[in-house]
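Notes from hallway chat w/ T.B., transcribed later so I don't forget. T.B. wanted the structure written out for a chain they're using in a teaching module, and asked if we could keep both sequence and structure tokens in one place. Agreed to drop them here.
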Amino acid sequence: TAHGSSLDPAIHSLVAARLGAADLAERYFEQTVAIDSQDSTGSEALGLHIATLGGLWQATVFGFGGVTVSEAGIGVNPHLPVVWRSLTIPLRWHGSRMVLTITREPRTITVEVQDGAANLLLGEHTFPLAPATTTHFRWDAAFSDWQQFTP
């Protein structure tokens, strides 16, 4: 694509993040931000690019956060940029409200389920999450897997 649309860079950022191409994902993300913050398309007088802002949200949540949704639950496979320490994402899934916090170092995921129950999909594992609970997971490099832990 020639990136003639203001929608292109955000989706390219999302895909690059999921593929593990961190530098490319960040470059497309910054390009997307610049569309309105620096009027890089020369169309600022026409207003904000609302769909582009939606694309930024998608790149953040589905790309860098690595969030996926399915009937089985919420999947998380994060790819945070090096300069991001953490990312907090409020979500709803099948009536459940939750907040995911992904931390780069140490590599952890915390899920606060506010109401409703949910399943968290991490790697090959499904973790059932009860209402009104906070559950913590950390990356165990020795096993190349996520492990539940109590801080």
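Follow-up for T.B.: The longest helix spans residues 22-37. Might be a good example for the class.
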